[in-house]
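Follow-up to my post from last week.
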Amino acid sequence: MHDPGHGSGRRTIESKYADEPLTQNSGDSSYDAVALMPDVKVLKMGGQSIMDRGRSALFPILDELAAAKDKHKLLLCCGGGTRARHIYAMASDLELPTGVLAALGGYVPRQNARMLQMLLAKHGGIFMLHDDFEKLPLYFRLGCIPIMTGMPPFGYWEKPTENGRIPQHRTDAGVFLSAEVLGAKRAIFIKDEAGLYDDDPKKNKSAKHISRIGARELLKLDLPDLIVERIVIEYLTRARFCHELQIVNGLERGMVTRALEGEDVGTIIYRD
Amino acid sequence: MSKLVTGDGRTHIASSLMRESLVDRSVIAKTDSDREFSIMPDVKLVGLGGHSIFDRGKEALFPLAEELASLRHRYKMMIGVGGGTRVRHTISIALDLGLPTGGVAQLVGAMEEANAVFLNALLAKHGSIVMQREHFWELPLYLESGMLPIVISIPPYHFWEPPPEHGPLPTHGSDFGLFIHAEVLGMEKLYFVKDEDGLYDRDPKKHKDAKLIKKISLGDLLANMPEDLILDRQLFTAWKTARHVREVHIVNGLKKGELTRALAGEDVGTVITKEARHA
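User reply:
Got it. Predicted complex:
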């Protein structure tokens, strides 16, 4: 301990940031980021799009994942779906703050993750919590498929949103941020559409498919609806590692396998 | 609200958000309303700076602990603690090692935990308790039984810290974390105890001619942000869309009695105010 503040009375440890305000983030030219586990394939199983369809949609996808698990390190994250929507609707009716919605929104993806764990148990499916994230190397070393919620752990600390109460960071954001911190190049989203369209294909039959688009370009289009959470596209523009989102139609046989092989099926949204 | 709806291959529960894309702006807007329920509006959240207070040791902490002990019977209070120099050292080492932003964010909370234990040791005989994050809903229990809960400030973003706009430093820091904690519980005022009289137009530790800003609105502050900020930038960004917090006070914890006066409603130090959302 020493007193670099020249009599400031602080007992500080000498370091590069000892006396710098941490509120400034001007950049550090010597910073050279390390990718922690770049070969992990981070996947999201859609809640409304896959889980709520039940066995007919889910089982073929699980077969594909079980077949791929010895070839790839899979981190499987779960979306919420209609029960999460019911919770958000109830909480909005009660006029509760966004942070409470975010905490409540955590329950359903966790349930879904537990369901997937039961179904994949015989193939090494392991349910994990956020606190188990550092055990990923162990799970992979043992040949397991770690399964967790897609929701990030922000909970009550989620920021208030403009014009509404739905938390900005939901399961897409959590999946993207998991890929980013692991240093994985791509995050794969398994949904019930072949990716991004210029309008909701469930409501507009003439909506056009977009197979490849830059994040900035997409934000500029300012579409009223998107297939992934808006904030993920924003983060993608400044991500250090995860430079691509891939959205595939899990209802089409073989799509998940092809995505895991690195094929550009579905839609790729890239950092431009 | 319990009817099950099928027919499109999915099983839905009937609700106003059924089948909807939660990314659709018009759907999100349906969840808005002018009011928001205040969960615990009369709790006072007081944040003690890590760098500014804890790193000064007993010279700063003993008088403050005494002041807090005398205040806790008057108010329902909760204390947040910062990390200080050990957080800065952690960040310096972690960035030199090239750890990703989320990895850095995962590490810093432990240094705040240590300060929570320090403060709890000093205040235990006055009924303080370190409240773990998982015990979020036990706050009423602690307050109703007359205890003084101490929490760490950093939000639990951990490995999932969003990529910053510039540089590798995590941006969701301790001041932001305490702000959100106050906001989600519906508190109207939040107090930061630092080692300066408040917010200055420049860092008063580096510039002798820095001017103290005694009172400013959030709007004016956002329009003219000082370069050396005493609080996290993210706090101000989040405050724009917040609904409950009306005032953020910054008081000098090295001056005895300042916190007491601020809690009693006096404008000491700096007061940043926000006009009502639907005024």
